[in-house]
Amino acid sequence: MFRTSLLGIGLSLAFSANLYAQQPRLPNIIFVIADDLGYGELSCQNGDTDIPTPNIDTIASNGVRFTDGYVSAPFCAASRAGLITGRYQTRFGFEFNPIGAGNEDLGTGLPVSETTLPDILRDRAGYSTAMIGKWHLGGTAPFNPIRRGFDQFFGFLHEGHYYVPSPWKNHTTWLRRKSLPGGKNGQWTSRDGSLIFSTHMGSNEPDYNADNPILRNGQPVDEKANLTEAFTREAISFIRRCGKERPFFLYLAYNALHSPLQGADPYMKKYESIDDVQRRIFAAMLGQLDDAVGKVLNTVKTTGLWENTLIVFLSDNGGPTRELSSSNLPLRGEKGGLFEGGIRVPFMMQWPGKIDAGSEFTKPVISLDLFDTCLGLAGVESTTITDGVDLMPFLQAGDSEVIPHDQLFWRVGNKSALRKGDWKLVRQKGRGATGEWELYNLNDDISEMNNLADEKRDLLDTLIEEWEDRNREMIDPIF
Q1: pTM
Q2: DSSP E strands: which ranges in 46-141?
Q3: How far apart, in whole angstroms, are the C-alpha atoms of residue 449 and residue 433?
Q4: What's residue 399's pLDDT?
């Protein structure tokens, strides 16, 4: 009887293992998020560039590049809130960007009532989940990534961080200052050339590291490596640990190319032909980021996960041109604004065998779509109303006329925008904008130079009404 029982247990286990092996394996999902990367910086976006990005470019050449890919906000935190919930962040009051000590305010963060993408992937589809890099969705206990659906977290909670510990050895560092030694304005360089102060922005470099340690699952660690390298190391370790045994979702959010500008010596040497030292440091950071992405891609390939892994690359917002020297060309504007340069970003996706290699999708899409796309891959549905769509049917339809969205909406304080087809409605003050509603045809005028508001008054009024209808669905900011 004992032998019979053992035999029965053995057959049951063997049957279960065989049944598990026969089940289709859920795809792995990797988000690679660059910080403050301008629309015109990548080689695949703009072939005429002084900083080649061959590794990032392969995501486009192995998959699809979204020419009209948007984020839901023109700066870091609000954009990430939309990305991870699949909802316009103005629906739940996350409209602005907490910075500095504001990250530590009680109640400042992604509302705990909001369901995150890793919540669903982990709890309903059995994914292993990891968040590596910059969080910026709350700096106090309730908002920690390991309480928001992530099994593992390595990174920091605030808006920025120095890439290496002080005194920033083996790096060239460019910092904003209100005043130079002697009370002068302009640019000051240390004797060894490793430290540069500039007054061109009229402000001091923020205190990024204050109360903002590098954490591993909530506990501070003493990280010595450049953060771009450290985050890559942690991402590779997570991918290898999961391997083929379990599906995983990796949210890899680099802080490159966010300030402060710090270029590692080997990369400064690589780009020594660039005369402008600010641009050279930026090039060093982008070159290092590109190599880091290459290492992650190579790990996916060498672990045998290549054909079963969706990889997405995007920036969280447009580049801050004056701060970093980053280019958003041919777009108008930069980070913080609702002209195209603030919200249209490098955005690409690969999944070998499932997405046509080297393709372009020219209809407007938005980062909110990634939420529904990932749930579709995992075979689960959202329990909340989302504002995105599953992009896979559109990418696989083979119909260039299919349109995922009738309209896209933005609101940041007194800045407003709506895109409908080729038409863009926008209103903001400052930097050449009047604060009045403006109207552009992006098909004819991607740089938003020819305001057609007076010529197309009826269309303008219709789009304003549509923006106001959508705006009534949103709530006031909660912090």
Answers
A1: 0.94
A2: 64-66, 69-70, 128-134
A3: 11
A4: 57
Domain boundaries defined on the chain: 24-162+212-396, 408-471
Tokens of 425: 């409605």
Contacts of 69 (CB under 8 A, 6+ apart): 314, 344, 345, 346, 347, 348, 365, 366, 367
DSSP three-state, residue 371: helix
Strand-by-strand arrangement of the 64-66 sheet: 219-220, 215-216, 152-156, 128-134, 248-253, 28-34, 309-315, 347-350, 64-66, 359-361
Digit-coded pLDDT (tens) for 308-322:
999 999 999 999 999
User: What DSSP string runs through 17-48?
Assistant: HHHHHHSPPPPEEEEEEESS--TT-STTT-SS
Q: Is the dihedral of CA 388, 392, 393, 397 positive or negative?
A: positive
- Mean pLDDT for 401-423 is 95
> Smallest Cα–Cα separation from 29: which of 349, 430, 468?
349
Asked whether the beta carbons of 426 and 416 are under 8 A apart, the reply is yes
Domains 24-162+212-396 and 408-471 share a fold: no
Count, in order, helices (H) and strands (E) of the chain.
12, 22
The owner of tokens 């403050």 is 36
**Is 3 buried (19+), middle (13-18) or exposed (0-12) by CB count in 10 A?**
exposed
The CATH number that domain 24-162+212-396 falls under is 3.40.720.10
Domain 408-471 has CATH 3.30.1120.10: yes
Catalogue the active-site residues.
76, 136
Q: Is the pLDDT of residue 229 over 90?
A: yes
Distance from chain centroid for Cα 374: 16
Asked whether 286 and 53 are in contact (CB, 8 A), the reply is: yes
139, 157 Cβ separation under 8 angstroms: yes
Q: What is the pLDDT of residue 398?
A: 64
Long-range contacts of 462-470 (CB under 8 A, 24+ apart): 463/418, 463/420, 463/423, 463/425, 463/439, 464/425, 464/437, 466/407, 466/418, 466/420, 467/409, 467/416, 467/417, 467/418, 467/425, 470/407, 470/409, 470/418
